[in-house]
């Protein structure tokens, strides 16, 4: 048996997926005074790490979040799902925290740890900025292999095999740890945290850093000039029958 | 020794100056990464080229792979391409980002590219952020508009807000939403061909296999007509009704996440925030309620039709034509009547 695995799982606190976001009055951002929760792809990442731990119990799962003080709620959720400890990189305002900066913070945390991680599992994208960049950037900075958009992960000792979702189908990639995985929706069904586990999570260790502690410059490279509502569709017209539908498509919309 | 060191510094300084010059004065100097498979250029690359053409300046196209000759000839004739860089090496066959990203970086360093463009596809998304990190610059994902050499428009929050962002980096690494730009056409003359610079091929990963869904129907990304089924289809067999209608209309078939998760159809058919983002002339949503995440993938379609028995389904708020009816009755009838 080889040495136990150490898996780092970055999680992001985002506007809940079911919230219909609205652009704020100054057109600089969306209104953030709404329900937040863990980015859905990150829940899948935590679940996958915890499943690996369930197979090889010596595995350590470390949840990491970069954001305001409220990110600690997201970290507690990850701990309640089964992560062992948490790292919080606190910033005052996370609205300008961008993927390159997060990737650098994650790399710095990996390097600060006494024992290096074997695996990072991240979500494939955050549902707020929809960037889909952080995992790939982190892999580039660390010069590690990346297996993105994973729908199946097989780990045998330090050998990793990942089935990836690509345009038109699936692709299988093999590599060795250390490596980066980013999760697609199909990878697993995340568990709900039970009440006893939520209580236990409050006692699990959570350490805090600032970007300055880690020596990382997080100033944004992209400046948001404005944020607008998308153009509205004028939908809502109903037809009474298939005949009327065919007639409208043929003679009004002229798409048949 | 002293002199060598000094001249090297001088050369580096000159390279930096050249980059700044491109970025501010002489227009863009763009590298288009060409995605290709089985001898065909990806449609998304053609859309990304149109976006690159909007920047002005010059465009070089990079073709990497083990046998790209026919692809190189096609690329050389594309509108706006002034040079084709080729990297013929078996290491590039499967577009593994660990090998392609250093190639992009080497090309950027040699030619002082100010912009790197490609399609926002599974492949583009995989490679470009890695290359951006190696260059220590931001990546700009999934742009739908270009307002200047450094200013881009992109949807956020599943398309529920549109952000205009300005990049302050000297190299802009950009992936382009295919449906937001026309496909680039061809020209009569051919651009010159040149070997791409050599780059590290760390071979950190090994490509094992792929499983591509074969279909005679048009490609979902580029089809002019799309028919999608959701949870209301009840099972995979019932999708045959949609295939029959699709075949009659020459349409592609898509699906909502609910239909994919329930195992009715393959993942690659998913339309939405995390699946394909499409904008056909006609989109017919069948038994799809219209969750935010699904709308993100289809609301730029020209004409949207919804067929659903729930009159309150949110899909009706975006549909140009809505039919409140049982799909098991309406679809066969529609298939019969669209002749």
UniProtKB/TrEMBL annotation, chain A:
Gene3D superfamilies, per database record: HUPs (3.40.50.620)
GO biological process: amino acid catabolic process; fatty acid beta-oxidation using acyl-CoA dehydrogenase
Entry-linked Pfam families: ETF (PF01012)
Cofactor: record remark: Binds 1 FAD per dimer.
GO cellular component term, pick one: mitochondrial matrix
Subunit structure: Heterodimer of an alpha and a beta subunit.
Keyword Glycosyltransferase attributed: no
Protein name (record): Probable electron transfer flavoprotein subunit beta
Subcellular location: Mitochondrion matrix
Cofactor: FAD; AMP
PROSITE patterns: ETF_BETA (PS01065)
Keyword field: Electron transport, Mitochondrion, Transport
Recorded GO MF terms: electron transfer activity
Domain Electron transfer flavoprotein alpha/beta-subunit N-terminal: 26-218
Native source species: Choanephora cucurbitarum
Function of the protein: The electron transfer flavoprotein serves as a specific electron acceptor for several dehydrogenases, including five acyl-CoA dehydrogenases, glutaryl-CoA and sarcosine dehydrogenase. It transfers the electrons to the main mitochondrial respiratory chain via ETF-ubiquinone oxidoreductase (ETF dehydrogenase).
Top-level taxon: Eukaryota
UniProt KW Transport keyword: yes
Family: Belongs to the ETF beta-subunit/FixA family.
Automatic annotation (TrEMBL), chain B:
A Gene Ontology BP annotation from the UniProt entry: fatty acid beta-oxidation using acyl-CoA dehydrogenase
First-listed, main subcellular location of the protein, grouped into a coarse class: mitochondrion
Alphabetized GO MF terms: electron transfer activity; flavin adenine dinucleotide binding
Cofactor(s) named in the record: FAD
Keywords, comma-separated and alphabetical: Electron transport, FAD, Flavoprotein, Mitochondrion, Transport
Keyword Flavoprotein: yes
InterPro entries with a match to the protein in the record: DHS-like_NAD/FAD-binding_dom, ETF_a/b_N, ETF_a/FixB, ETF_alpha_N, ETF_asu_C, ETF_asu_C_CS, Rossmann-like_a/b/a_fold
Compartment(s) of residence: Mitochondrion matrix
Gene Ontology annotations for the cellular component aspect, listed alphabetically: mitochondrial matrix
Gene3D superfamilies cross-referenced by the UniProt entry: HUPs, TPP-binding domain
SMART domains: ETF
Cofactor details (free text): Binds 1 FAD per dimer.
Domain Electron transfer flavoprotein alpha/beta-subunit N-terminal: 30-216
Binding of FAD, residues: 231, 256-257, 270-274, 287-294, 308
Alphabetical list of PANTHER family matching this protein: ELECTRON TRANSFER FLAVOPROTEIN ALPHA, ELECTRON TRANSFER FLAVOPROTEIN SUBUNIT ALPHA, MITOCHONDRIAL
Known role: The electron transfer flavoprotein serves as a specific electron acceptor for several dehydrogenases, including five acyl-CoA dehydrogenases, glutaryl-CoA and sarcosine dehydrogenase. It transfers the electrons to the main mitochondrial respiratory chain via ETF-ubiquinone oxidoreductase (ETF dehydrogenase).
Self-association state and partner proteins as the record states: Heterodimer of an alpha and a beta subunit.
Record's protein name: Probable electron transfer flavoprotein subunit alpha
Taxonomic source organism: Choanephora cucurbitarum
Gene: ETFA
């Amino acid at each position: 048996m080889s040495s136990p695995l150490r898996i780092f799982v970055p999680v992001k606190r985002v506007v809940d997926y079911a919230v219909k976001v609205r652009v704020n009055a100054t057109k600089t951002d969306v209104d953030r005074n709404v329900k937040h929760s863990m980015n859905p792809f990150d829940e899948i990442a935590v679940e996958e790490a915890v499943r690996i731990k369930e197979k090889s119990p010596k595995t350590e799962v470390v949840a990491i979040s970069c954001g305001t003080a409220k990110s600690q709620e997201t970290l507690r959720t990850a701990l309640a799902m089964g992560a062992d400890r948490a790292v919080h990189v606190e910033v005052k305002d996370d609205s300008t925290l961008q993927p390159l900066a997060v990737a650098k913070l994650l790399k710095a945390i990996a390097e600060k740890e006494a024992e290096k991680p074997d695996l990072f599992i991240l979500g494939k994208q955050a549902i707020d900025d929809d960037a889909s960049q952080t995992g790939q950037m982190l892999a580039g900075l660390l010069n590690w292999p990346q297996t993105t958009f994973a729908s199946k992960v097989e780990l045998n000792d330090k050998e990793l095999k990942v089935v990836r979702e690509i345009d038109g189908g699936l692709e299988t990639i093999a590599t060795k740890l250390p490596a980066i995985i980013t999760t697609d929706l199909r990878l697993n069904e995340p568990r709900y945290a039970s009440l006893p586990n939520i209580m236990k999570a409050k006692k699990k260790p959570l350490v805090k850093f600032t970007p300055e502690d880690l020596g990382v410059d997080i100033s944004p490279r992209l400046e948001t000039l404005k944020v607008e509502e998308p153009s509205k569709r004028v939908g809502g017209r109903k037809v009474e029958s298939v005949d009327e539908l065919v007639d409208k498509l043929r003679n009004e919309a002229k798409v048949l | 020794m002293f002199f060598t060191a000094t001249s090297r510094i001088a050369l580096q300084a000159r390279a930096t100056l050249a980059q700044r010059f491109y970025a501010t004065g002489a227009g863009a100097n763009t590298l288009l990464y060409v995605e290709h498979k089985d001898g065909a250029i990806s449609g998304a690359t053609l859309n990304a080229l149109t976006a690159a053409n909007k920047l002005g300046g010059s465009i070089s196209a990079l073709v990497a792979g083990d046998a790209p000759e026919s692809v190189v000839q096609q690329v050389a004739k594309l509108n706006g391409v002034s040079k084709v860089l080729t990297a013929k090496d078996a290491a590039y066959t499967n577009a593994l980002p660990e090998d392609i990203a250093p190639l992009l970086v080497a090309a950027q360093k040699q030619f002082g590219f100010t912009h790197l463009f490609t399609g926002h596809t599974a492949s583009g998304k995989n490679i470009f952020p890695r290359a951006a990190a190696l260059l220590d610059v931001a990546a700009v994902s999934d742009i739908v508009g270009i307002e200047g050499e450094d200013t881009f428009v992109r949807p956020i929050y599943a398309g529920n807000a549109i952000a205009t962002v300005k990049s302050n980096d000297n190299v802009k690494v950009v992936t382009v939403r295919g449906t937001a730009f026309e496909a680039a056409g061809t020209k009569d003359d051919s651009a010159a061909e040149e070997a791409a610079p050599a780059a590290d091929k760390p071979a950190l990963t090994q490509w094992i296999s792929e499983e591509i869904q074969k279909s005679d129907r048009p490609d979902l990304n580029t089809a002019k007509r799309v028919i999608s089924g959701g949870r209301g289809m009840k099972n995979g067999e019932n999708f045959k009704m949609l295939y029959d209608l699709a075949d009659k209309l020459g349409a592609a078939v898509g699906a909502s996440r609910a239909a994919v998760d329930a195992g009715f159809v393959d993942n690659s058919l998913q339309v939405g925030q995390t699946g394909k983002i499409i904008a056909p002339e006609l989109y017919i949503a069948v038994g799809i309620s219209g969750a935010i995440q699904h709308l993100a993938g289809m609301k730029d379609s020209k004409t949207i039709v919804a067929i659903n028995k729930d009159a309150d389904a949110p899909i009706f708020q975006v549909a140009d034509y809505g039919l409140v009816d049982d799909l098991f009755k309406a679809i066969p009838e529609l298939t019969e009547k669209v002749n």
